[in-house]
Amino acid sequence: MKFTFVTLFPNLIEGYFQDSILKRAIDKDLLKINYLNPREFSNNKHSKVDDTAVGGGAGMLMNTQPLFDSLDLLKTEDENTHIVFLTPVAKPFRQNDAKRLAKKTHIAFVSGRYEGIDERVIERYADEVFSIGDYILTGGELASLVLCDAVSRNVQGVLGNSDSLNVESFESVLLEAPSFSKPKIYRGNEVPKEYLKGNHSKIRTLKIALSECKTKFFRPEQLLKHKTKENL
Ligand code: ADE
Fold first, then answer.
1. What is the average pLDDT score of the chain?
2. Where are the domains of the chain?
C-alpha cells in the first residue's frame, strides 16, 4: 500500500515512520511512503504558495496553481490514487473509514496550511474529505498522520498479531475492557481476581461488564447505541 503526503512541510511527517510498527512495515515493503511538496510546483518566482482570500477574510489561503499541478501529476502517474483532504470542515474520521481505506492501493493525503485551501482544489480533486475532531490544528499534517496510522494497522501483515485487530474498541460499539500486565500485584494494586483464575467464560462476562462501565463513563451515547442494538 502506498501513501503520498502532499504537504509544504514533509519534515513534520517523516519522523513518524522512523521507528516501531510502521517502520517495520516499510522495511517489509508492506507500506511505501512518498512526499510531494506543492512549493516545488509553484510558478511564482519566489515559490510563493499562498495568497489572500478573494472577497476578503482574515489570513492567507493555499492557492490553486501549485496544488492543481501537484495533484495533476499524482493522477497522471497513478489514476487509482485516492485523494483525501484533511480539514476541520469535513465529516469525522472513524474506524470503519480506516478499515475501508485499507483496501485502497494508493492514498494521497493533502494537508492544508494557513487559513485553508482554495475550495476549487477540493472540488476538483477530493475523493474524500475528513476532519479528525472538533478543534483547529495549525495544519493538516498531524491529521494526515492520524489517518495514515489508523489505515496502516488495518493493512494485512502490518500488525504482527492479527488477533489484536478484532477485539478492540470501536470494532464493536463498546469501548475495550481494561487490560493488565505482570506483575499480578504492583505496589499493593492487584489485577482483578477473575482475570487470574483462568475461567475464560467468567473472564469474558467480567470484561463485558467492565466494557460497559468504561463506555458509560467516557462515551454514554455509545452505551445507548449498544443497548438499543441488544434489544433489536
Ligand atoms: N486541519 C486543521 N484542523 C484539522 C482537523 N481538526 N482535522 C483535520 N484537518 C485539520
1. 94
2. 2-152, 172-231
Q: Does domain 2-152 have CATH number 3.40.1280.10?
A: yes
53-68 confidence digits (pLDDT tens): 999 988 999 999 999 9
CA of 165 to the centre of ligand 1 (A): 26
User: Is-contact 120 17, C-beta < 8 A?
Assistant: no
Atom of ligand 1 nearest to the CA of 130: 8
How far is CA 204 from each of CA 23, 160, 167, 194, rounded to the nearest angstrom?
A: 34, 24, 12, 10
Ligand 1: residue of 85, 110, 113, 132 to mutate (most ligand atoms within 8 A of CB) is: 132
pLDDT digit string, tens, across residues 179-219: 999 999 999 999 999 999 989 999 999 999 999 999 999 99
- CB neighbours of residue 154 within 10 Å: 17
172-231 CATH fold: Trp Operon Repressor; Chain A (1.10.1270)
Quick check: pTM over 0.85?
A: yes
- What is the C-alpha radius of gyration for the chain, rounded to an integer number of angstroms? 22
Cα–Cα distance for residue pair 49/43, rounded to 1 Å = 9
